[in-house]
Amino acid sequence: MGTFIQLVIDGLSAGSIYAALALAIVLVNQATGLINFAQGAMAVLSAYVAYSFLRIGVPLVLAILLAVVVSFIFGALIERFLMRRFERGDPDTAVVVTIGLLTLITGIAGWIWSFNNLQFPSLFPVQSVNILGAVVSVRSIGTTLVIVGIMILLQLLFIGTKLGLALRAVAVNPQSAAFSGLPVGRLLMVGWGLAAALGAIAGALVAPSLTLTPGMMDAALVYALAAVILGGLSSPLGVVIAAWMIGVLENLAAVYIPLIGFDLKIAVPFILIFVVLLVRPQGLFGRKDVVRV
């Protein structure tokens, strides 16, 4: 039982990291209708910004907050001067642009800070607690609680605030939103800025576990995209639950299914995607789009 609890809690911790990126992807999609494949690279860049503040003596919490602010500005500028040229054109072109942006940001990060592994301090103490025979790190608990808090705030943003409703309106139909008097351009910038800020939090959470490198978030991005597909692009709650499912199930499958093991556990989210897309293409918690003609 202790092993099972250990695997579940470790899976929730890993899933929380996937969820942070998945929430950022959902945020961009809710604001612009696009999938941002550069979200992981933007999170890594934010972690390097926080690392640079730490190097000059800024306290950890303040360094992360400053990185969040810088990331918000960076995300808004990316939307204004790059993505706006492609957002309302061919969606395939915009996807290719975000993939190119991923490569560009990764290369710039490596050029400035090198490709060596750098140590990034954790927000949470390096301690463990015993829960029903399982040894659980305080970092895992803290990471999970932070993601739960962010998920609740995003859910409230999209459902219960004028800003969230305006972001969704712009994503669904920017022309109608503009005719209604909404500042479409500024809302798009805010959407990208918020997603980049959320990515900064994800980078600060994952860097202490993996060490800081330009490609640190590549694997996490794959899992985050899987969580987005499973949970549904329209549901922040759904993508978090899907990310937790992926983290827990891949851990359990690696230990309890010999055919999979640790080498093939990455196949677990893709099997889940295949099953869910057959049964419910909009995701477990997503809404089916209804088109009236």
TrEMBL record:
Topology of this chain in the membrane: Multi-pass membrane protein
Pfam families for the chain: BPD_transp_2
InterPro entries for this protein: ABC_transp_permease, BCAA_transport_permease
Entry superkingdom: Bacteria
Keyword Zinc: no
Swiss-Prot/TrEMBL keywords: Amino-acid transport, Cell membrane, Membrane, Transmembrane, Transmembrane helix, Transport
Bilayer-spanning residue ranges: 6-27, 60-82, 94-114, 145-167, 187-208, 220-247, 253-279
Location of this chain's protein in the cell: Cell membrane
Family: Belongs to the binding-protein-dependent transport system permease family. LivHM subfamily.
Protein name: Branched-chain amino acid ABC transporter permease
